[in-house]
Specification:
Blueprint: H1 7-23, H2 30-41, H3 46-50, H4 55-58, H5 61-68, H6 74-105, H7 109-115, H8 123-133, H9 150-156, H10 167-171
Helix pairs in contact: 1-6, 2-6, 7-8
């Protein structure tokens, strides 16, 4: 089996998704979003804001109260709302792009799941690997060539990295040779 059908369309969608991801601002925790939403809604009391933090952040309550003490005006709230709205739009766009990508990847979901068992390969990296290389490994040389290391592989493959994957993900640290090093 080769790359998913309509591979060109899939790659275009992936390229769009990647450019959006690279340009987005990300809120890493639900607690941070809850606190920002409360600030936008008009809450200014530091203890009340700190109480919105979930368990792991809540243990650092004193530091959180100190960090939330300060001047946050209505102008700041307006600007923050604009940023939060944009983040929500980006997340919705990513979800809209992920749905057709997942449908296209369904026929090769087993290969994707197997790739994801390799440390450092996330669903997104597995999708890119399958889109670029396909799932038919018979087109590549035998496994015996891999003992020669990264420099040999770089000479045997294109210098262009997989689109949407940082080069360190492709080449990995020397101790792992070809195992990708990021998620």
């Amino acid at each position: 089996m080769s790359a998913p059908a309509n591979s060109r369309d899939w790659k275009k969608r992936w390229k769009t998704r990647t450019s959006i991801v690279l340009g987005r601002q990300h809120l890493s925790t639900r607690s941070a979003r809850n606190i920002l939403d409360a600030l936008v809604s008009g809450e200014r009391h530091p203890q009340t804001l700190a109480s919105l933090a979930h368990a792991s952040m809540g243990r650092k309550s004193a530091a959180l109260v100190e960090a939330l003490t300060g001047r946050f005006t209505d102008h700041h709230a307006f600007m923050m709302q604009l940023h939060l709205d944009r983040i929500d739009q980006i997340e919705a766009t990513l979800a809209a792009l992920d749905a057709p990508i997942d449908r296209v990847m369904e026929p090769v979901s087993l290969a994707r799941e197997l790739l994801m068992t390799v440390p450092g390969i996330s669903k997104n990296v597995a999708n890119v690997i399958i889109a670029e290389a396909g799932v038919d490994m018979s087109v590549f040389d035998t496994a015996g060539i891999w003992h020669r290391g990264r420099e040999y592989v770089r000479a045997r493959t294109s210098e262009q990295p997989l689109f949407g994957v940082h080069p360190s993900c492709v080449w990995g640290p020397p101790r792992l040779r070809l195992l990708p090093s990021c998620v």
